[in-house]
Amino acid sequence: MIRHVLGIAWHLGGMFLLPFVLGFVAALFFEVSEIADTMWVMLGLSALVIAPAFFFQLVGVALKVGREGRLLRARGRLGLETGLAAVHRHVRVVTPRGWAVLFTGLSFVVCALGAKWASLSVLAVLALLLFYGMVGATSFLSTFLVGTFETGVKRRGSISREMVPAVVLSGEPAEERFTFRRVPVPPGFYLLVEDVLPARLGTTSRYAVGAGARREELLVGGRLRITPRGLYQLGPAEVYYQDILGLTRISLASLATAELKVLPRFRALEIKEPPRSRLQAPDVITRPHRFATEDHFRFREYVSGDDTRRIHWKLSIRTGHLTLRQPETREVSTRTVLIALDTYLPAGRMLEDAVGVEEVLDRLVETFLALAKELVERGDRVSIVAVARRPDGAGLGVETIVCARGGHQRWQDLGARVVWQGQYDLPQILDAVGKGVNGIVVSSRFQAPPPAVAEGQSLTWVYLPPEEALGSSDPTLLQVLAGTKVNAASWLFRLPYLAGSDENAFTAQLRTVSFHMARLAARRRLRAIAKVNGQRTMQALVARGDAVYRLEPGVGSHRLVGLAGGGLSRGAA
Predict the structure, then answer these.
(1) For the structural domain made of 158-263, what CATH number should be given?
(2) What angle do CA 515, 517, 520 make, to 5 degrees?
(3) Domain segments of the chain as ranges
(4) What is the mean pLDDT of residues 510-516?
(5) What DSSP assignment string belongs to 517-563?
(6) Residue 289 has what DSSP assignment?
(7) Per-residue pLDDT for 272 more than 80?
(8) Where are the alpha helices (DSSP H) in 266-425?
């Protein structure tokens, strides 16, 4: 709310008072006696140029905010904060390029007064006339353009947005497309659509169209730079008009949403077995030690279609006909397994810092799904459970899926919606681990699990130590900004984006630097916690008496290295 108040004060009043304040301050430090006689004339001429722009902006903002306020009231969303946000959005008519023109003109004024250079003052006047002239014209036209845009879109036009394809595998290309149908674009302006996509996609969505948007249909689009695992809600996009000089813009609407679902891939698993265990409920790590059996057998005559592997050859020779051996006890080879994905981080600073470790969760999800696939192919009855975003977007929930052959897409859909969360710890998602159920937990915990996890049962832990997951070191800020280590040194001496792009503006670059600094700081804090607690958590898991398996992620496959084979279950002890 404070940000909106300060923004309104600056755009609505400070922008028009700044030339007078700066001129007064400059007069205190420079010798201006030669122009003191014409000071009132200069102030009058300046007011004659600036006052109309200020008046038109006031009228335009009042009309647009009043129209939007009525819509918000009809939807029951009108409040102090939403009202201030609407005012702030409509008073921001100046682009970064426009601010550059204003400050250039003001700097020329200061230099002309200091150096007593009359020719430079002419350039200053021209720059300020251009700036305030465009602001006044845009503010005046915006009163009518917004209404024209809304009427045109409601009656016959539309702006739609889609992702092609809407569901992709991690790393596969995806393209964003906007379709414009009979959208009014006035002469001297462009229609711009802009949306800041989630940081993981590494892409800024920005498209500009001219008079072509008035056609029956105009299609524009661009490919996403990267597509990591996740469910992405895109939009609504900001739509506005911008003058052909790029100095001012008119906010029109926030619309055009889309959804992109990036499914995790199935990675091959290389399993290195731990020491054998005597547990009677084996899992992917521990296998039962097979002892000699004292089972009793019944015999009957062989019938066509019986399993020939059960023919008792010695008895068949003695009796003169094929005799089949049939055990009185049936061998149980099918296991019931529940695989849980542990995404819990304590709410607060640790959960907020999780924005820097999305790739760690990606590896856990891939291992989570690969284990389910391998056990299903072995013939086990497998269920998977994880905390994920609900399909309708209404918060988080614990979801359980009974895995079956051919149902891989359902598993991947769950894996795409998994996020770091601080609501559900392991006891809440392992309720289904009861008698006769083998529990497997895929985790990268920074802290030891609660002691009441699946009490009375032995679990198998597939653990990715967080210190190893974060890597040996983080890239430097310059490396992150430049994209590669090779270009890091040259980032300071070149434009990060194409010439003329708004991202090259100082304020835009400042936001980018601040964003990446915050993410690197989050990783450093998590790395400090992992360094202290990583080995302790591993030792605590081994001390529980459960089977523990260290996850070593790779590029094409992941490796599971057994550390402890587990002991007798706590329920049997």
Answers:
(1) 2.60.40.10
(2) 110
(3) 2-144, 158-263, 333-565
(4) 84
(5) HHHHHHHHHHHHHHHHHHHHHHHHHHHTTSEEEEEE--SSEEEEEEE
(6) P
(7) no
(8) 313-319, 349-352, 358-378, 408-417
